[in-house]
Design goal:
It is built from 18 helices and eleven strands. The chain is α/β, with parallel strands linked by helices.
Length: about 400
């Protein structure tokens, strides 16, 4: 049986990537530092995945799994040296902390003259492939050429929504995860070294930039926009926000503006992007997922960064001289997002109150573009208590007055 190593036994690792490989006949080893999760994986050798929709719940059992203690560098490196393929889903900020065991595993692999290794990178970061490759090359400078030839750094677009599971919904099993039905995994076809594995719902595509932008500038952007507008109307859950017609209107118009830019950038027909937009709004309405406004909107310090979901989308529209008023509204609402237990969002919201929108965009977003004044106007309108309908009207007026060739 072929072996797949999943670095990260969190919700995406268990609820999406690991399940696809298990269903495709692989033995799946999960690396994590959560001792409870590792112990349970090793005792049960399986775990439940609850696929939830507004039509009900279907429990699926993922088998042929085991746990690997992430603190045991020697064990982790041995598993990586001997596996057929691996993936990461641990969060962009954690990649730098796991590069040592990955590099050690690659070194052992080279010494044993093993087959090429493909690493599927399931992180929300444009250029995650080059970032991880650079980290590994720093650890193994003597193997730079072999890394280029024998290690595939394969970007993936993670579209499946897998929310945090409250303790009461785990039903006594810490491994239980709740997921939506959508389970397609687009990956960068050109990045593989050697044969592309035959894995259920794996979708190799080239050029992959299309899917990276679609995920970040459509899915992540509109999800966050729903959260920030939902926060203004005191909703707890995303499904409540998207059921609000005004919020759905903003989310859809922002999706259309982003889709236009992605279509232009990648020279693809916009139809498939608009279909995706409709599908996203339908999926956000999944009551059983129980995804919260606080979780989806969390950390505006990161989500308003230069190339992330909102500012990145605005920059792409500006590159192609396309409308972006509803994307700007998402940014303004994000600046007003300040849940008590969200330190990074509190930091950003405090900064904008003290220094203003222009300085905030410079500091956190590396943005000093033409829409700075409009974002500032929208933010002030929010602080002045104007309604979302009034904000929409401001966007309509701005868009209508702008002449584009």
């Amino acid at each position: 049986m072929k072996k797949f190593i999943m670095y990260g036994a969190g919700n995406i690792g268990r609820g999406f990537i690991g399940q696809l490989f298990s269903n495709s006949g692989y033995q799946v080893g999960f690396i994590d530092i959560n001792q409870e999760v590792i112990a349970r994986l090793n005792s049960d050798k399986q775990y439940p995945v609850n696929v939830v929709s507004n039509d009900g719940i279907e429990e699926q059992i993922v088998k042929n799994v085991y746990g690997i203690d992430g603190k045991d560098v020697e064990l982790v490196s041995n598993e990586i040296a001997s596996c057929d393929i691996m993936a990461t889903a641990i969060g962009v900020n954690v990649l730098k902390f796991i590069v040592k065991p990955i590099s050690l595993g690659i070194k052992k692999r080279f010494e044993q003259n093993k087959e090429p290794l493909n690493i599927i990178i399931c992180e929300n970061l444009i250029g995650a492939d080059q970032y991880l490759k650079g980290l590994i090359k720093e650890q193994l400078p003597e193997y730079s050429d072999r890394i280029d030839k024998e290690i595939g750094f394969v970007e993936a677009s993670i579209g499946r929504m897998v929310p945090v599971v409250p303790e009461d919904k785990k039903l006594g099993n810490p491994l239980r995860v709740y997921v939506e039905p959508y389970n397609i995994l687009p990956v960068d076809k050109d990045a593989f070294k050697g044969e592309i594995p035959d894995v259920q719902n794996l979708y190799p595509y080239t050029p992959f930039n299309l899917f990276i932008q679609r995920k970040l500038f459509m899915h992540n952007m509109s999800h966050a926009t729903c959260a920030y507008l939902g926060y203004l109307r005191n909703y707890e859950y995303i499904y409540q926000a998207i059921a609000d017609y005004d919020i759905k209107c903003v989310a859809f118009k922002a999706l259309v503006q982003s889709a236009l830019a992605i279509s232009r950038e990648n020279k693809v027909d916009i139809d498939m992007l608009l279909d995706h937009a409709e599908n996203l709004l339908y999926r956000f309405a999944n009551v059983e997922l129980g995804d919260t406004v606080a979780r989806v909107g969390k950390d505006t310090k990161r989500k308003l960064s230069s190339n992330d979901r909102l500012i990145g989308a605005i920059k792409l529209t500006e590159k192609h001289n396309l409308p972006n008023e509803y994307l700007c509204l998402g940014v303004a609402c994000a600046m007003a997002f300040e849940p008590i237990d969200d330190e990074n969002s509190q930091e950003l919201s405090s900064f904008v109150k003290e220094f203003g929108v222009k300085e905030t965009l410079k500091k956190y977003s590396d943005y000093d573009g033409e829409k700075t004044k409009f974002i500032a106007q929208l933010y002030q309108d929010i602080k002045d208590g104007k309604s979302i309908q009034d904000l929409i009207k401001s966007c309509e007026i701005k868009a209508g007055k702008t002449i584009r060739v």
